[in-house]
Here is the input.
Amino acid sequence: QKLLLLPGDGIGPEVTAAAAKIAELVAPDIEIGEALVGGASIDQHGVPLTDEVLAQAKASDAVLLGAVGGPKWADAERTKRPEMGLLNLRKGLDVFANLRPAYCFEALVDASTLKRNVVEGLDLMIVRELTSGVYFGEPRGIDSDDKGVRRGYDMSIYTAPEIERVARVAFEIARGRDGRVCSVEKSNVMESGLFWRNEVTALHKAHGDGVELSHMLADACAMELVRQPKQFDVILADNLFGDILSDTAAMLTGSIGMLPSASLGIEGTPGLFEPVHGSAPDIAGQGLANPCAAILSMEMALRWSLARPDAADRVMKAVAHALKAGARTRDLGGDLSTGAMTDAIIDQL
Amino acid sequence: QKLLLLPGDGIGPEVTAAAAKIAELVAPDIEIGEALVGGASIDQHGVPLTDEVLAQAKASDAVLLGAVGGPKWADAERTKRPEMGLLNLRKGLDVFANLRPAYCFEALVDASTLKRNVVEGLDLMIVRELTSGVYFGEPRGIDSDDKGVRRGYDMSIYTAPEIERVARVAFEIARGRDGRVCSVEKSNVMESGLFWRNEVTALHKAHGDGVELSHMLADACAMELVRQPKQFDVILADNLFGDILSDTAAMLTGSIGMLPSASLGIEGTPGLFEPVHGSAPDIAGQGLANPCAAILSMEMALRWSLARPDAADRVMKAVAHALKAGARTRDLGGDLSTGAMTDAIIDQL
Ligand SMILES: CC(C)[C@H](C(=O)O)[C@@H](O)C(=O)O
Ligand SMILES: CC(C)[C@H](C(=O)O)[C@@H](O)C(=O)O
Here is the structure.
């Protein structure tokens, strides 16, 4: 099995190194490679993702990405921005289903800004469409209309097959959980939202055995995530709503530094695994970053793409035990460095 | 001064009646009319907003709308849906700046699902663009492409003048508060977001005296609203992000039943005032609705469109005192009916 590390920018290299260290311990037979993405790739090659690196990613079983972006590249033209490396990678690997679990480790319940009873035992999964919608729709641009009025625009668009394939993943995941999918859109104001809702409903009629489907408007969902997050099992959302709602859900659990994600394509193609957090340039290189999100992304890689559920279980338990034993990085109110936190987890393997 | 009531559907009639009762007491000289909107208008006239009612709204100084929508009309074609009444009214009145304050009444701090220290003293204002963006962009529709693939799409578009006029309102409002505006978009993935960001930045350079401008991505903002909401003073957002973020902000304060909104156009045109909550069909007609959001929307109408800041102050104080004295509807954990809650507020006028 081959794993490709793409450390990227900011705290990316620190946290992927921590995750790699753990992978080497629990699955020493996995072959680990490394390459550039994001700002690091721009500095070296002038583009945020080279064709060679994309080919290398496609030839792997799993890709672990750290984070991309930083002030250094923020004002460059779009094709020269670190984020484009990530978008091109997602599109290139065709990883259309982005799985973002939000669970609250018992030891961290009090790190949440929400009250204990609201988040204790929280365990929801957001399934976000990742390769379409307003992120990629055409036409898009900044120009002037025929009266000379300047404008910026993007097409928010979904086709039936794009909705169907991600909805199937949500149904499948729900079957392995509590069997409930809540599909989110703005069907009251967007045609693409109405289309999304109708397609998901039709698919559920045909292939929804064992799954209870409900629908919620995106604004209501944002509210319910704060009001009563434990009502949800699986949330299915498009690229844009999934982006926003998963950040809200992540924050419920106390620290964005804890949450992993998996992006999956069709069977037999490599998955892309990344922490939900960003490159955090303000703390980069100081050993302050929480490595848990990257380590748990590695856990998802072991489970979903590297066929090593046993190793994944070991990692998950070690993280829970380390937290229970009091190990905390700064974002969790403690003072362990990235390395010390990693060692605390290794001690529990 | 003329005020038009548009009670609408669900709990709309109950809560607007409560607000009207209070307006009659604090500003008896205001002439109050009433008309149909939403499902109520569909049932009577076949459309969610008639030309006559729009003309009547335009000829008023302020419009107070209850809420629109309900299961009865949910599956109708788009032009026959209650929400279109609201969208047509917003567009028809050209109320481009939607002001959504989120403040936490001291007496209600514990009603929030967030911890006391996170929300106590919270006082932020969301300025949401309300008449453009993906809500109205063209082309939009559901059809098949030239290969026969079915799809749904909407154009997310902003012109420079549309951004400029709402940003000016945000700057002006910030000057009367703490002087800080945080503009929110997804400039890292959307051209319209990058355009928004650049236009707001340019406008700030030219007309931003006394205002500190910052920028935040919409996903990060959703997270920060849960992590540390008191960091914000004024949040400026487009129609779609403003919709979602204001619902999150509303929920921080404990109950969506408390929060009002004002939608303003250019000077001298009528403002539209509505509770942030929806029509809540499940509790309609039972006297269970919290009238505070409608009463506080009336407060905003008195302040922003009816030139009666004195009367507005009286209403605001009466609501705070009634809450302090323990008056609570069911959503706040109490058992007062809509009418009893209204009377509790009247007692404090
Ligand atoms: C970095 C950015 C392009 C990305 C996104 O918007 O998808 C990030 O926010 C995420 O959620 O992975
Ligand atoms: C009812 C609906 C069309 C509306 C919107 O999306 O603008 C509502 O959610 C709001 O925020 O006022």
